[in-house]
Design goal:
Layout lengths: L5 H9 L3 E5 L13 H5 L4 E8 L4 H16 L5 E3 L3 H9 L3 E8 L10 H8 L1 E5 L21 H13 L2 E3 L5 H10 L4 E3 L16 H9 L3 E4 L13 H15 L4 E3 L12 H5 L22 H10 L4 H19 L2
Parallel strand pairs: 1-2, 2-4, 3-4, 4-5, 5-6, 6-7, 7-8, 8-9
Helix pairs in contact: 1-11, 9-11
């Protein structure tokens, strides 16, 4: 990529940069050593995926516990986030602020009380179903069902404890019903515009507008398969940002890159588990991810497109920070 212009580099350093989803499929806490790539790239906050529906719920608890221990034993560069104030403290100290998210409610094991437990462990947002239907609602690669009674109970409990409701990976009906039902702003932590790239994981205009209507934020994602024909490029990222800004305004757009850096064989899981990654949607081993190192170039690209400083600061992190200030307890 071309060298950053001084104005873009300065703005990226000064802005709060918030990546709302890192796709770390559990394989050992030592992999968190790669978090230095986020910190070195000027990212201030990252939500680490601690589990998804493909994993047994017991393994999600193990991952969360071991991640917390690793963060606690590396205090020189990382800080486990409990409150919004922790984010500002981490930034002032040059540390990467970290929390967790869950992709699907299989992690709850049918127990409503697990919502509060995960919140206390550092999970700050959770989505309903990862690609396939489960006990809470529908996934995007399955029959388009809505929220179940259990899913509706979970929303109320998430609102109570301060956990953000996330509609990524969910079916159309589940997402629309969740956004109607939640008493707090709802997000898509990592989802792109289906009008630009027709993949079942991407979301339609009415979903994008419904999210904004809750006061929420849509995070564009850097998964190449969901971006466009050229794969994981900053140019594609900006195309999706432009589209969403035109639709709902800059105050409701952010990003969750879903960068996956430690898979043993790129995309191998897609071909091993077609229940969650159907061949029609994932025909091969994957198409890569936008890297943390590319994010300063997103700032440059937004400046090149004529975005004002206030809008860029919001997209880079201010908008997701607003959601945390409104929802976390």
């Amino acid at each position: 990529m071309a060298q950053l212009e001084p104005a873009a580099a300065a703005l990226h350093r000064d802005a709060l940069v918030w990546d709302d989803h890192g796709g770390w499929a559990w394989s050992g806490a030592d992999k968190l050593e790669q978090l230095e790539r986020w910190r070195a790239s000027g990212i201030d906050y990252l939500s680490i995926n601690a589990g998804f529906d493909v994993m047994p719920w017991e393994l999600t608890l193990e991952a969360t516990s071991r991640y917390r221990h690793w963060i606690r034993t590396h205090p020189e560069h990382y800080l486990q986030v409990e409150t919004v104030a922790d984010i500002h403290r981490a930034r002032a100290e040059g540390k990467l602020a970290l929390s967790f998210d869950l992709e699907g409610m299989n992690a709850l094991n049918g127990d409503l009380g697990m919502v509060d437990l995960y919140y206390r462990l550092g999970v700050r947002h959770m989505l309903f179903a990862y690609n396939r239907n489960n006990a809470a609602g529908g996934g995007c690669h399955d029959e388009d069902v809505g929220l179940t009674p259990f899913g509706r109970e979970v929303i109320a409990e998430m609102n109570r404890v301060g956990m953000v409701v996330d509609c990524s990976h969910c079916s159309w009906r589940t997402s629309m019903e969740a956004m109607e039902r939640s008493a707090a702003p709802v997000i898509y932590s990592h989802a792109n515009a289906r009008a630009l790239w027709d993949h079942e994981r991407n979301i339609r205009d009415d979903q994008i507008k419904a999210c904004a209507a809750t006061g929420g934020v849509v995070g564009v994602t850097g998964v190449g398969r969901f971006l466009g024909p050229d794969g994981p490029t900053v140019a594609h990222l900006v195309e999706h940002i432009d589209y969403m800004v035109d639709l709902i305004g800059p105050d409701h757009v952010g990003f969750g890159m879903d960068s996956v850096l430690h898979v043993h064989k790129p995309g191998g899981g897609f071909t091993r588990n077609r229940d969650y990654w159907p061949e029609s949607q994932y025909p091969d081993g994957g198409s890569g991810y936008v890297r943390p190192e590319d994010l300063p170039h997103l700032t440059q690209a937004l400046l090149d497109r004529g975005y004002g400083e206030a809008a860029i600061r919001g997209i880079l992190g201010g908008n997701f920070l607003r959601i945390a200030e409104q929802v976390w307890k």
